[in-house]
Amino acid sequence: MRHIIVRRGGPIAAAAAALLVAGGGLAVARAGSSASVRGPEVVSGTVHGKAALANTPRIPLTLTRVVSTKGRGFVLGNGGGNTHTLVTAAGKLAVRATGKKAQTQTVNQKTCHIIFTIRQKFNFVPGSSTGAFAGATGPGAYQITFSAYVPRYTSGSHKGECNLSNNVEPKAKGAVAHFLAAGVLTLPSPLADDSGSSWSS
Hints:
By secondary structure, the chain is mostly beta strands. The chain has helices at residues 11-21, 50-53, and strands at residues 27-31, 34-48, 62-65, 67-70, 83-88, 91-108, 113-124, 139-149, 176-187, 199-200. It is 7% helix and 44% strand. Strands 1, 2, 3, 4, 5, 6, 7, 8, 9 and 10 form a 10-stranded mixed β-sheet that branches. Strand 6 and strand 7 (113-124) form a beta hairpin.
């Protein structure tokens, strides 16, 4: 099975830079009696084969860094609009898309391997996030990548060429759907201590 390498260009590069600014660890900032926690949050997940070819792929997601938990029932392409909510064991994490969505598609004519990528920046939405994510703010970006091999035409004037028609079914072997998001998450409530441990669930 072929694994793809996710290109971290565009918004993902911006999110990665933001994570570097955050220092890769957690920071607790206090002003009087108020306190907040700021640090990197990374969300990722991958499915292969037939699961990647589903009309709405269901991708198990893992969240790490400020809040470590698992996503529940995340379905790729499960709705329109600019605001999306990820339901996790630790609470709901809501994001609102910003800027223009970027889409690219590449085809290797020698191997008939296609890669389709969507990139989008976002902001965490404090009023819609709950549980460990309540009051979450900060910028980030996500990238969704789908890759697979398509069959070749077996007859006609295009015989031997890659079949890129809309009604062709990509091959299950080698198909991959990958989700990656990264952001700088700021929470209004402090962690239990300043040791750098994270929320977990």
